[in-house]
Amino acid sequence: MPPPIVGSKKRIRQSADSKPAVKRAKTNNGHKVTLDELGWKEVPMPDRLDDVEGFYGLDEIDGVDVEIDGSGKVEYKVSTLAKGGNKKEEEEVVDGEDEWGGIESDEDSGKEVISKKAQKAKKKEPAKSGKQQKKDKKLKSEDNELGGSFALLSDEDEDGKIPSCPHYPSNQKELIICRIVFLPAWDSLNLSLPTLRALSKLSFNTPTPIQSSAIPEIGAGHDLIGKASTGSGKTLAFGIPILEYYLSRPCKSSKTKEEEEEKLPMALILSPTRELAHQLHAHLKALTAYAPDMSIVLVTGGLSLQKQLRKLTERGGADVIVATPGRLWEVVSEGQGWIAKLRSGLKFLVVDEADRLLQEGHFKEVEEVMNLIGRRDAGSEGESGSEGDADEDEYSKRNSVKRKSQERAIERQTLVFSATFHKGLQQKLAGRGGKKGLGGDLMGQRESMEYLLKKLKFKDKAPKFIDANPVGQLAERLREGIIECGAMEKDLYLYYLLLRYPSKTLIFTNSITSVKRLSPLLANLSLPAHPLHSKMIQKARLRSLERFSSPTSPHSILIATDVAARGLDIQNVDLIIHYHLPHTADTYVHRSGRTARGADARGVSILLCSPDEVIGVRRLVAKVHDPESLSTARYAMRSFDADRRLVTRLKRRVELAKKVADCQVEKAKKGHEDEWLRVAAEDLGVEYDSDGFTGGGGGGAAAGKRGKGRKKRREAAAAATKAEVASWKAELAGLLKEKVNAGFSTKYLTAGNVNLAQALVNSEGMSASFLGLEERRVVDEVGG
Ligand SMILES: Nc1ncnc2c1ncn2[C@@H]1O[C@H](COP(=O)(O)OP(=O)(O)OP(=O)(O)O)[C@@H](O)[C@H]1O
């Protein structure tokens, strides 16, 4: 007879909340006993466990502490009353202590204590063998590594050995405990142990809505289009089914040598930017921490191609490839049978940030990659072009993959995810171009489906469409504001915001030129900002991101083009500043989505709006915020009235910093600028070479004037003498040493944090000048 399963169906509570329960249990004058001496009670079985192999019952016990000392020795401590059933403890449970107390560090004794509710597991046999008792004692705490949830779990299999197979196939006991005790919210998704362990380690106790909806559909083999707001966990919505599929395959140890040679990539994940690809890679690595044999390889530009090719073949080959389309194209162009491998092996093709990947410059590369890998439908050989065939033949000869893979006849699922689906996309791909500015609407469900069905080679006639946030794409706890200012005042207002509301801030501009200009400007104002744009070398890009993301720099600033708008998941970003009005509504959504990510996170997005951007801003408000939903008082974009007295006091600082920065930039350019701008404009698509964005159809003349102004400034900067620059620097240094009185007796701009979200909600003072309308009216006028 198989050994019985032990566990409990009670809900758990995180250890942070559990101190009182643990403390009380410890003061119960408990005494140490063996497991069999405890007063176990049988628990009626839920129906859902009927079909679990080897499982036939649960017992539970209250009023027991488990203590584990440093050497892993386990002791059970029980109050006298708890032995054989404990009425008093049960009453306490009813009074609100009905959840597990988790593991607490017992500071006095140096031991870990699992509270009474944690230890409810026991074998059903009346007496245990010595071996079994020994095994029970081996239950060890993984508190340090796994955040406390897996105290009852061990790495041993039923024979007390560490399983050689990373999939832990025989460890049903742990699996059941994981599912119903530690991560009950994930239970219905039927996940395997390594996945659950990773989720616990990440403290992801509950699936997000897109995860709950998408995982079963993907697991059932469907193609899927998933739309959910920024920061809502889309990566794991496809990452978990990929891991589950991997785990469902036979263990490596059971494969023959010949089969191991054949390892083919089972999933290809396409990302529009290198940074996002790096992040996806890291995210999936964390998810697959308990499937250590799973090889996930990053294939992005900016890093050594040879090194990446080597990684693709290390450890018997890649299981998952996370790639940007351009570098993937380079890889498949290298020969070495990659076309055949992808074509034969891929079970999943994931298109992350789909609307961006299928947009503009990217689509050609994606389309080429898709044509190459073709589609292998069940039972067929898939499509083949002449190039691919030649490649496949060569590869097949070497590894006899073709024959085997045909036998396997893998049916590939296509999974498409984004927070937005953009209407202008269709026009662009049809070769008609799109309007500049906010010409691109966000697509509805039907349009998105029609479009994607045309462009992607889905397996299913009707892929599943899941829209986890049908009302909006923006995170629920995002607060949005607009500051109206003159085009030439943007630097001033930017400085005001950064100084007044010190926080982790991401500034978006529409041009590389602006990133290059604003970085020294802010540095001169003692606010060093890390730059990020697509013309930086990859290492510098990653370094900027790393420094900005560092938890030890809570007020760090990143100044970036839209290369950082998509997908980047940086913890604790508080504030997004749109220095320029974004070109499209979906870019606004994605930029703003770099804050307020995750379940409880909050964040603020502020758009600096110059008079020539007003039309564009009005369009944006109408597109991003459904007028219907605004009538239900949902917070939308609000005119934010900066304290203009303070702004005025900061003016001289910004003037000086600008002059010095202009000289620095001019010096750095050394006459190469024209060529550089031409190349950048050609290469970058959205990253225009314009210092000021002309948004929404207005501003042509204004932009022209600014162009002249800029030219003058540059000429003046080029002509500035060393002595002049030195005197500006000295004056600025003096001003920066002074505190700026905020107009209240105790508040100084250089001191501490002010709650920007609250300031936005309370925004008062001077009314909006040229936007000239309350938020409701803006929407009524444009969208109504
Ligand atoms: N179930 C979960 N519980 C708690 N946090 C989660 C969960 N799933 C994912 N997260 C975290 O939420 C954050 C956002 O996840 P992710 O990057 O996948 O969002 P996204 O929907 O892809 O966002 P975007 O549209 O901006 O790319 C990440 O830090 C991730 O680790």
UniProtKB/TrEMBL annotation:
* Compositionally skewed regions (Acidic residues) per UniProt: 91-107, 384-394
Question: Where, per UniProt, does this protein localize?
Answer: Nucleus
Q: Which InterPro entries match?
A: DEAD/DEAH_box_helicase_dom, DEAD_box_RNA_helicase, Helicase_ATP-bd, Helicase_C-like, P-loop_NTPase, RNA-helicase_DEAD-box_CS, RNA_helicase_DEAD_Q_motif
Report the CDD domains cross-referenced here: SF2_C_DEAD
Chain segments annotated as coiled-coil in the UniProt record: none
Q: Would the keyword Nucleus be found if you checked this record's keyword annotation?
A: yes
Give a GO biological-process term.
gene expression
Note the Pfam families from the entry: DEAD, Helicase_C
Its predominant location is: nucleus
Tell me one GO molecular function of this protein: ATP binding
Q: Write down the superkingdom of origin.
A: Eukaryota
Boundaries of every Helicase ATP-binding domain copy: 215-439
Q: Which reaction does it catalyse?
A: ATP + H2O = ADP + phosphate + H(+)
**Similarity comment: family membership:** Belongs to the DEAD box helicase family.
The protein depicted here goes by the name: RNA helicase
